[in-house]
Design goal:
heterodimer, A: alpha+beta, 6 strands, B: alpha+beta, 2 domains
Chain lengths: 74, 223
Amino acid sequence: MARLVRLDRMGHTTLAEWAAGDGAGHEAAVAAFRAELEQGMVASLTRPDGSAEVIRELPREADLVVLRRPIAGG
Amino acid sequence: MDAALPARLGEAQALSWREGASERTLRRDGRRWSAWTGWVLLVFTTPGVLLLAIEPLTLPAALICFAHAYAVPRIQAARGARAPVPIGSERSAARLAGTDERAERVALGLLGDLVTHEARELVARSGLVIERGRMGTWLLGEQGALLVRPGGRRIFCWCVRIAQPEELPAGDRVAHLLLALREDEEGFATVANLQFSGAVWRVRRLMDARSRAALAAAQAEAR
């Protein structure tokens, strides 16, 4: 089951979950994903090897996508 | 942008005037910091020695010079040691008044899911996340990062944080930095503000015991 998660003041909030063959679930996740990006969030796709990648489109086969706020120098 | 290509860290792209971090810039910045420290020592030690050579009764003035030669590099190293802010430390968001304990636990749970078992144990002990990168071994806190270079002798200390951290639990703050680092290590080092670079021992002696344990783990990983 793939998850779209937003880091927020609650710790995190699961915005959407979808299975590999769940087209409607993925479409709902894409809508939530785009709404968060429009709010300035950054989407990070965590790969199985532990690395991460900034994404602009939500892949259907993703395992975990985390939405985070931008970072800045202190 | 081609959606098939991995995107670079947008925060780094926004800093077009800033030179991108790389192996070359790290080596150069390390040499500059060493030269600066040597210069500070020379500038304050030389007059002290000259004063004593000319007139031994100027010892109090010479001691002031020597104190500066000791204090200035130490203050700079202290800024570096303070940069990361471990989870649960005195300056941690988890210690602020009105902290949501449940949110803190949830955030720590997600952070634990993002790291290895060994890293999870180190977070529990030190409040810092260890992450191996191409540039060296990183330690991430809520407001900064330490990079132990390969070989384990030199450290870089950066201040880097979430642009709008309001109300975010401590674990989430570290998770933000961890994800950004994993997305683009060079971009992460470009966005972060360098506070200090020098020998690891100069920073270690100014840390508390929890952070020293994490630094020892990072040094072992970097060797």
